[in-house]
Amino acid sequence: MAGSGDDKGFDRQRSIALGVITSAHGIKGAVKVKPFTEAPENFSAYGPLHDEAGQRYQVRIERRVKDQLICRLEGVRDRNMAEAMRKTWLYIDRHQLPEDHEHFYQVDLIGAEVQDEHGQAVGIAAGFFDFGGGEMIEVTQHNGNRVMLPFAPSLRQEVNAETATIRLRIDPIWLEPTAKTPDDEPS
Questions:
Q1: pTM for this one?
Q2: Mean pLDDT of 11-32
């Protein structure tokens, strides 16, 4: 497969997803990428990206089309190679990103204690998601249940990667277990 450099393997703890290849574009090996960076043009700004197999890629952005980027990946020379990369997630090593004490990277908050607005522990941050309706944080409660909570800026009272704490305004109903329906029961 295409790519270059040190194939060290994939380390979920140190890798941050910057985008996913959605399709091939044209016949000369370009790909369409859905970027996850706050500013789409930053998708290729931090250096080579890698996939889950550890294959590294130099990326050049050709242009932006709506919410996607048309990119060239070093070593991808034709449409067949580009098609084979469809649904490939592209990552960067955490240490390649600049330190920013005014903002945070979600990966740095995995394992942080999540607290309500009164400082009471709710659980541990297990992941962050955006399904289209806004950011969500998955929290593993101390009783083992997992809940998804809104992670909107208006609900964040404190986010501190150094102390590994997240304090949120939480509606208590969000923490209640959902009732099982007959369809949830195993047959």
A1: 0.63
A2: 88
